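The instructor's notes for this session suggest beginning with a concrete chain rather than abstract definitions. Hand out the sequence below and ask the class to guess, before any prediction is shown, which regions might be ordered.
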Amino acid sequence: MSDELKLARIVKALAAFTLSLSTPALAAESIKINDLVVAATIPEAQRDATMKAVRAFYDFWNTGDETLLQEAIAPNFIDHTLPPGRPQGPEGPAFASRRFRAAVPDLKITVEKIIVAGDYVTVHMNFTGHFTGKFGQTQGKGQAVPFIATDLIKIEKGRITDNWHIEDNLTLLQEMGVGKVDQ
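After discussion, reveal the predicted structure:
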């Protein structure tokens, strides 16, 4: 098989894979992925297992469905940027989702970009929703609370083992009326 034919088949496979990610197979609740970059050639089985875990993890954040979280993360999951009060391990994301959804029940996520580089995946997302519940001592008034976040996750054997994340908490807390920056 010529190198040109091999390259054409690889490009065709990547195009089909990218299209399959932008057309959710799981109905209306599945996350929307605006851009996917595969930074290095990885075996098809590893790529598919990686994207299955990624999709389940962000579908969990989009819906709050903890069965998706269980599909996505490994039993030895470590949050390397663990906020105070959040349990370490697989219970951490479930705890965070339940707590935040109590304040913002209509929370939704759009994945703006995914970069797959071997065992590591970077995900940049936009969160949207309305603060209608309670956060600490503050009761929401229905205000919109859009904010951004970026995760760096490590995937081994098709499961997320590690997460480093950063959220725009200042914007979020200001929108909720919980935080304020004096000018």
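Then share the key points. The radius of gyration is 18 Å. The first strand starts at residue 32 and ends at 33.
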